[in-house]
Design brief:
The model has no long low-confidence stretch (mean pLDDT 86). By secondary structure, this protein is an alpha+beta fold. Strands 1-2 form a two-stranded parallel ribbon.
Length: 70
Amino acid sequence: ETLKAILDQTATLGLKRADLLPYHTLAAAKWQRMDRGYPYAEHPQPLKRDLLEPLIPYGAKLGIQVSIGG
């Protein structure tokens, strides 16, 4: 629902394109090696492509070209 709200706001701004980048945890080990807390450790699950794909037709209805992965 948050991503749909972001696309709604994007449409009101007149933007015609949105690139959605799936969240991943690849950097978590690097942060641990540096003895620093991983700032996104509290996020429940990484966003996967199949969760983002329904936003493509939703964005199209708003006149926004949505792509996944940049």
